[in-house]
Write a structure and sequence with these properties.
Blueprint lengths: L18 H5 L15 E7 L8 E10 L7 E11 L5 H17 L5 H7 L8 E2 L5 E2 L2 H15 L9 H15 L8 E2 L6 E6 L2 E4 L9
């Protein structure tokens, strides 16, 4: 609605928004800050589809340093390889993943999202018969291993228990037991075998018998 001004203008002021309007503004949490030196781990991925290995480095930042609440959480990820075939999407993936790391909060959802990616050309079997549906899925597994190592995630079975299940499967079903497995409803890997009348995934440890 327009208002006609009948008097001479001698001054003006900028109107401030009402309190109700200001209360609706969503404030974004501050990003995690980077220290000059970060600690991290580098993981190697070698697929049968490439002559060159892929190296994944995940660096962590320490939160609440020197207090009882001190803990580590991922800050950035880098992926390097001599194979330039996947260079463009790898750069995009590392930048997006690093941005999610820096936002803070729960980042464990990344693991399930990445591990659920299937290559339409087919996956591959790692050394030892473990099936991977795609390179992206294996990157998701690496992030999962890292989150478990710094205490941000819990594995369904610890490494010793899972290794014992794999050895048992090899003894009873043969060295290529995982290659003969069915698809797991939880992680999607073709690694579900029957042990002691119970279906068990040799990839993530999921068991129908609890």
């Amino acid at each position: 609605m327009s208002i006609k001004i009948e008097k001479k203008i001698t001054g003006y002021a900028v109107a401030k928004p009402e309190d109700e309007q200001e209360s609706n503004v969503a404030h974004i949490a501050p990003l995690l800050e980077r220290d000059d030196i970060l600690e991290g781990n580098t993981y190697k991925i070698k697929t049968p589809n490439s002559d060159h290995a892929m190296y994944i480095t995940i660096n962590d930042v320490v939160i609440n340093h020197g207090t009882p609440d001190e803990h580590r959480r991922p800050f950035e990820v880098f992926i390097n390889s001599k194979n330039m075939e996947h260079f463009m999407w790898i750069v995009a993936l590392t930048r997006i993943t690093s941005a999610i790391f820096r936002k803070g909060g729960d980042i464990t959802f990344l693991v399930e999202e990445l591990k659920a990616v299937f290559d339409p050309r087919g996956g591959y079997y790692k050394k030892g018969g473990r099936y991977m549906p795609s390179i992206v899925a294996e990157i998701g597994e690496v992030i999962q291993q890292h989150l478990i190592s710094i205490g941000m995630m819990e594995g369904q079975l610890n490494n010793a228990e899972l290794q014992a299940k794999r050895l048992e499967a090899e003894e009873k079903l043969g060295a290529d037991a995982m290659a003969k497995g069915n698809q797991c409803d939880k992680c999607g890997a073709m690694a579900v075998v029957r042990l002691d009348n119970c279906d068990c995934c040799l990839e993530c440890g999921d068991s129908k018998c609890g």
